[in-house]
Specification:
The protein has 80 residues and is of the alpha+beta class. The chain has three helices and three strands, in the order ββαβαα. It has one domain: GIY-YIG endonuclease (3-Layer(aba) Sandwich), CATH 3.40.1440.10.
């Protein structure tokens, strides 16, 4: 399974992050340990939501969409 996930910073609630992972728990642990250069300055993170995909291509396409302006607007209105 591939997971597209949405994170929100606990200390900086205006900061959000969208990512793609095979092992969601390990990836969240890595974000909170500061092992991701894009997220380490806003840690700790909490998982807001995730979507599981059995098709990797669909997961990649959904992650790309969530990183667009319309995807971020959708997430802000419906998911965060």
């Amino acid at each position: 399974m591939k997971y597209v996930y949405l994170l929100k910073s606990i200390d900086h609630p205006e900061q959000t992050y969208v990512g793609l992972a095979d092992d969601l728990r390990a990836r969240l642990t890595a974000h909170n340990a500061g092992r991701s250069p894009h997220t380490k300055k806003f840690k700790p993170w909490r998982l807001v939501t995730y979507v599981a995909f059995s098709d990797e291509a669909k997961a990649v396409a959904f992650e790309r969409y969530m990183k667009t302006g319309s995807g971020r607007a959708f997430a802000k209105k419906r998911l965060f």
